[in-house]
């Protein structure tokens, strides 16, 4: 078994031959330092800047020149749905006001399980379902922007 070291991000969906994949949960994709294993059985040590989560579909380059793509791991999530946009918008506002990471779809949202927040969503008129799915939360309002504070 080889040990691969990653220090470089190439970006999303590169037109590069991918040598292997690593499957990471949302929590693992948030880390800048991580040890895991590729689809080919090689151990991978990731050494990247903290603060910028890995994205599903992103390609990394190892020190020896191999390309590794990121896949999302299915994990326990809560999916909440409703039929009208006003109720949906209000629910997103309340979760955002609590700085909760959510994935947003067409009148559905997905978050990590939290019985208090699930109850709040039900009280607002959404239906909730605990399920296993890949969780890909919104990157955030300022992700990818270069912001200079004075």
Name the shape in a single word: elongated
Judging by the overall fold, what is the CATH architecture of the largest domain? Answer: Sandwich
User: Strands across the major sheet, in which order?
Assistant: 2-6-5-1-4-3
- Amino- and carboxy-terminal Cα gap: 50 Å
Q: For the CA atoms, what is the radius of gyration? A: 18 Å
- What's the rounded overall pLDDT mean? 90
CATH superfamily of the largest domain: Urease metallochaperone UreE, N-terminal domain
What is the H/E string?
EEHEEEEEHEEHE
Secondary structure: elements and pairs:
Layout: E1 3-12, E2 20-24, H1 26-29, E3 33-37, E4 43-47, E5 58-62, E6 67-72, E7 74-81, H2 85-97, E8 103-104, E9 108-111, H3 115-123, E10 127-134
Parallel strand pairs: 1-4, 2-6
Antiparallel strand pairs: 1-5, 3-4, 5-6, 7-9, 7-10, 8-9
Protein described:
With 150 residues, the chain is α+β, with helices and mostly antiparallel strands. The chain folds into two domains: 3-72, Urease metallochaperone UreE, N-terminal domain (HSP40/DNAj peptide-binding domain, Sandwich), CATH 2.60.260.20; 74-134, UreE, C-terminal domain (Alpha-Beta Plaits, 2-Layer Sandwich), CATH 3.30.70. It has three helices and ten strands. The protein has a six-stranded mixed beta sheet. A four-stranded antiparallel beta sheet has the order 8-9-7-10. It is elongated.
